[in-house]
């Protein structure tokens, strides 16, 4: 009887060990990167997702509201009612300077920009492992898409840097773990983030496309957009990091319009 009992236990343990070591997972809720990226169209579709998120975040009004209302450049009227009246205090708290971390516009700006940064990090991780020839693309064309995504990530970083400064983490990883601030010291953190944005823009400018006669790049991150963002960064350097870069800003601005 004991022999039978021990045999059954041994069989159960053997089956359990087999089940526990077979950890291959079948993915049903997403398309694996090795399957999705087949040609340039698939690359373009993935990059479009970054544009889509960025347009919702930066082309919307959240960052405009956060820049203008607290600075008293404009104010929000609440006494005339209708569409331009009371809005659940979404904008009035910015004019009255009594917002908090749960204020709608602040949350939307923060979450939207970080969503774009996270998507960009994930996509860049995918693109780094792709072979351009196997996708029917030139290496320069693939590099252009990578440069577009890095430029869009820098744009999102710039916008939240304007508002949150050295409190930001510096995250370029596709991991779900978010690090703390770039540095415990505020000024050092600002400098690190400033340098990151500047470096990203400088390293990607040459790979980006220029606008052509048909203006096919007018609504995308092209060289002009990249350089314009760099000029804006230089213009505000004294506020961001306590350094004056007005001469560089002027030179770059002249280069852009020439």
Describe this structure in words.
This protein has eleven helices and no strands. By secondary structure, it is mainly α. The N and C termini lie far apart (94 Å). Helix content is 60%, strand content 0%. Helix 7 (139-164) runs antiparallel to helix 8 and helix 8 packs antiparallel against helix 9 (223-235).
Q: Would you spell out the secondary-structure blueprint of this structure?
A:
Elements: H1 2-21, H2 33-36, H3 40-57, H4 62-68, H5 92-96, H6 104-127, H7 139-164, H8 186-205, H9 223-235, H10 237-241, H11 246-257
Helix pairs in contact: 3-6, 3-7, 4-6, 6-7, 7-8, 8-9, 9-11
- Helical fraction equals 55-70%
Q: What series of H and E elements makes up the topology?
A: HHHHHHHHHHH
Question: How much beta, percentage-wise?
Answer: under 5%
Number of helices: 11
Average residue pLDDT = 85
